[in-house]
Specification:
The protein is mostly beta strands. It has one helix and eight strands. Strands 2-1-4-7 form a four-stranded antiparallel β-sheet, with no helix packed on it. Strand 1 and strand 2 form a beta hairpin. The N terminus is likely disordered.
Length: 121
């Protein structure tokens, strides 16, 4: 179960319009590099630290899965699923707060704070 301080972060993000906090900046193109060696094909991978350091989870199933405790800020993600597949990040109430660009796509620097669940496809 996620810690209760997430409520404040998710609420603040929604109120400030920062729902896509893990998204690249609106003017930037999605960052795509070669998949990290610990992120297999057909998976969406979440990392505790920027630049794909310290793998926290890898999901491939098509339903909202709770991300691990301890992902309260910072981090990164890599979408290594089938070409064009989009992952969705959801808040505590399972509302979509960000949809990734189609695979392959990534964000080397983001914020897991408002995210509670990920639906890999």
């Amino acid at each position: 179960m996620r810690t209760s301080h997430k409520v404040g972060l998710a609420t603040a993000a929604a109120m400030l319009g920062l729902a896509g906090m893990l998204a690249p900046a609106a003017t930037a193109q999605p960052q795509v590099t070669a998949a990290p060696s610990d992120c297999p094909k057909y998976y969406f991978c979440g990392y505790k630290k920027a630049n794909f350091k310290e793998l926290a989870f890898k999901f491939k199933d098509c339903y909202a899965q709770e991300i691990p405790d301890g992902l309260n800020s910072g981090g990164s993600w890599y979408n290594n699923q089938s070409a064009g597949t989009q992952a969705r990040m959801l808040d505590k109430n399972k509302r979509v707060i960000y949809t990734t660009p189609g695979a392959p796509s990534s964000d080397p620097s983001g914020d897991w704070g408002p995210v509670w669940y990920v639906d890999a496809c």
